[in-house]
Amino acid sequence: MALIQNFTQKSKLRLNELLSFGRTLEEKLATTAFVSDETVKTQIESCKKALQDLDDSMMTGGKWLTSPEMAQSDKRRDDAQTSLLALIRIYAVHYDPTKRAYGITLKVLADKFSGMTQVAYEEQTGLVDNLLQEADSDIYKDAIEALPDVKGWKEELQAANEQCKAAAAKLVEERMRRNSVEKATVTRKAFNAAYDALVKRFNSLAEVFGDAKYVDLFAWWNALIDRNRVLISARLGAGVGGKTDSGASARPTTPSEPEPEPEPEPENPDVV
């Protein structure tokens, strides 16, 4: 009878190998029409959830996914802040007396917030908020309105600072998700149990209802297991992954039609 072979040696797979094994199986089942049947749907969904939990638990180390976004937004903010303050100083020595007067007024603001792009990410967010609040005050707002390019850099700095706030919020969310997931030792055990329950259900269905519609799936499944047995043995030593099934468990119970016996040659009466 066609069956899915036992694969207790999956406990010897590395986490990434086990995840790859699970994802390959998940993709196969998603493209196999009859497995959406209610008789096995619960076990498939449980296995999929356990696999995703395993995947999530493997994301607890390494770089933060939000880091590139934070670096990009921080550079944008630094560029805007540096350009705004530098432009104000240019206006403070402008050849046009009116513009120079506005520049001298704004230089007080520029000097107050000079050299503040090297502080910590969140600290700079607060400092930029303070800079922007003062720039909008009655002391400086007329001078900024009179100098359109200064106003443009101020608006760019505000947009960059808001982007930095959004990136920081994403990092907090990412930290929360990583800290709340279960450890890989727990999720691995849960996936192994869900996988074994799925195999048991498929084998039971084949035993009760016949294996005709399961033969192709089981043959593919056993080949996947065999491939991972070889992977384990190649890394840990010959035979550690277990004996490959080589298709034996996926052979159907229906015997092939026996070949007809050859008909006897007719006697030749002319032969003496």
Description:
The chain is mainly α and 272 residues long. Helix content is 66%, strand content 0%. It has 9 helices and no strands. Helix 5 runs antiparallel to helix 7. The longest helix has 33 residues, at 148-180. Residues 255-260 and 268-272 have low confidence and may be disordered.
Secondary structure: elements and pairs:
Layout: H1 15-30, H2 38-57, H3 67-91, H4 97-112, H5 121-135, H6 141-146, H7 148-180, H8 184-209, H9 215-236
Helix pairs in contact: 1-2, 2-8, 3-4, 3-7, 5-7
Descriptive terms for the model:
272 residues; mainly alpha; disordered C terminus; 9 helices
Q: Could you tell me the strand content as a percent range?
A: under 5%
* Estimated structural class: mainly alpha
- How many helices does DSSP assign? 9
The largest sheet is:
none
Tell me roughly what share of residues is in helical segments. 55-70%
Nearest-integer average pLDDT: 85
The coarse silhouette is rod-shaped
- Give the SSE order as H and E letters: HHHHHHHHH
Instruction: Tell me the distance between the termini.
Output: 54 Å
The stretches of 5 or more residues where confidence is low (pLDDT under 50) are: 255-260, 268-272
DSSP strand tally: 0
What would you report as the Rg, rounded to the nearest angstrom?
35 Å
Write a brief structural summary:
The protein is an all-alpha fold and 272 residues long. It has helices at 15-30, 38-57, 67-91, 97-112, 121-135, 141-146, 148-180, 184-209, 215-236.
